[in-house]
Design a protein that fits this description.
Largest sheet: 11 strands, parallel, barrel
Strand content: over 45%
Strand order of the largest sheet: 11-12-14-16-19-22-24-21-18-15-13
Number of helices: 3
Helix content: under 10%
Distance between the termini: 81 Å
Structural class: mainly beta
């Protein structure tokens, strides 16, 4: 192996070891081995996979640290792969020389305001395992084009930019698993102006990725932030499963934010499954804009200063078997769906536990200018002013739900309210408890048929 100390690196944390490490890279056997120590560098160590052959970087079970005291990434891995994940698209010396560049068991610490951890460009089958990156700008920065990236058992912590940044990239097949991605100022995992397919985010702890730990001015961000508003950008075929995704509230902040420009002709974010996560403590826990074809199931979504789930200008979103609640008296709960169609909400529990109603003043479930919404088998409990509040909606079917006020001193004004204009709405076979005013408030112009709801009494 290329033991960097045999090429002149000291690992004393003071000496500039940049040239010695580059010497080991150019003249060694392709395996950069760092014995225990702190290796100070001032320029990026660029690994040219096409020329240098298969490459690996190892930090001796985490006992070695890289101190990046200059701008740019501590390690930049550059390949030439321009194909897809299809083996038949791999040309040149990509398989003989460039496949499987691996970085494992090493710490990278930033000592410059523009220091990054690791950057990938044009790589094939890169692997990160047991890597700690902290006090940098961006932790892992994927740029231009990469394929088949594995990130596991890593700690991407307390960086001033993004933890894992997919930046203007064409990328298929990336797995992020079993890692801690926390306290990064501009987001945990952030995707901007990119074309991404086959992304799996599984079994991670993704927390507190906003300005609070950095004591800077807040910027809109999220634990998982996806922005496809740029022309040509799209992010599809994504699984977010079995993660803890939580934060502290910040202006414009979310736990999961997916944003597509309204009315854009490009392919909107879709073919997503968001399942089995713990998601909480932000302005909006989950905020979807311009999405099409997303399944949200089996999550515990808690404590928001605005909404647990906010859906805007979206289609074919299935929301099933989720628990929506608040976890602290200062925050609230609730689901709001705006200008969207073909949405189902089934088997969900939305509980407002605040004794006087939510701090936001909103009902637990709100529909605004929506069409073809099915709500079934769900519980809307202790809603103020209403359990379900709908305005200017059509073809909304509410059936088999429990809409109750459980406080001894009642606060709910109406169990269900339909206002504005609409047609084809049905409110049937729900179990509804009386409220402080008329249990149902149904505007005649809203086009609602009411049938078989105990305690029903509608005002027009």
């Amino acid at each position: 192996m290329s033991n960097v100390q045999r090429f002149g690196a000291t690992g004393d944390g003071t000496t500039d070891d940049t040239e010695a490490i580059q010497h080991a890279l150019h003249d060694g056997d392709g395996m950069l081995h760092f014995p225990p120590g702190s290796y100070r560098i001032t320029k990026p160590i660029e690994v040219n996979l096409e020329k240098g052959g298969p490459a690996g970087i190892d930090g001796t079970s985490g006992t070695a640290r890289i101190l990046m005291n200059g701008p740019g990434p501590a390690f930049r891995l550059v390949g030439t792969h321009e194909g897809t994940g299809d083996p038949n698209s791999v040309t040149g010396n990509v398989y003989p020389n460039q496949r499987l560049p691996t970085i494992r068991n090493i710490e990278i610490e930033g000592g410059h305001t523009e220091a990054d951890g690791i950057q990938l460009v044009g790589t094939m089958q890169s692997v990160f395992e047991g890597v700690l990156i902290r006090r940098c700008r961006h932790g892992i920065h994927l740029f231009q084009r990469n394929r088949n990236v594995l990130i596991s058992h890593c700690h991407i912590y307390h960086n001033t930019g993004v933890g894992i940044f997919l930046d203007r990239i064409n990328l298929h097949q990336i797995n992020i698993a079993g890692s801690h991605i926390s306290y990064n100022r501009l987001g945990g995992i952030r995707i901007e102006d990119s074309q991404v397919r086959n992304l799996q985010i599984t079994g991670n702890d993704i927390e507190y990725n906003n300005h609070a730990a950095h004591k800077t001015e807040p910027e809109p961000t999220a634990e998982i932030y996806v922005d496809t508003t740029a022309p040509g950008a799209s992010v599809n075929e994504v699984t977010i499963a079995s993660n803890t995704i939580q934060a502290t509230t910040s202006p414009g902040g979310c736990n999961i934010r997916i944003h597509e420009a309204a009315g854009d002709d490009e392919r909107p974010p879709g073919l997503w499954a968001i399942s089995g996560n713990i998601i909480g403590s932000q302005e909006n826990n989950m905020h979807l804009t311009g999405c099409y074809g997303i399944s949200i199931s089996g999550n515990c979504i808690y404590s928001c200063s605005n909404r647990n789930l906010l859906i805007e200008n979206s289609k074919q979103i299935n929301v099933g078997n989720n628990t929506f609640r608040r976890h602290t008296p200062a925050l609230g709960t609730g689901v709001r769906i705006v200008k969207s169609s073909d949405i189902t909400l089934n088997g969900c529990s939305i509980l407002d536990e605040h004794p006087d109603g939510q701090p936001s003043g909103a009902s637990p479930l709100e529909l605004v200018q929506c069409n073809r919404i099915n709500i079934s088998g769900s519980q809307l409990i202790d809603g103020v002013p209403c359990g379900l509040d709908a305005v200017d909606c059509s073809n909304v079917n509410v059936n088999g739900c429990s809409i109750h006020e459980t406080r001894s001193a009642k606060k709910s004004q109406h169990a269900v309210r339909f206002a504005g204009t609409g047609q084809g709405n049905l409110l049937a076979m729900n179990v509804i408890s009386p409220t402080t005013q008329d249990t149902l408030s149904i505007a005649e112009s809203s086009g609602v048929r009411v049938d078989g709801n105990p305690a029903e009494k509608a005002t027009k």
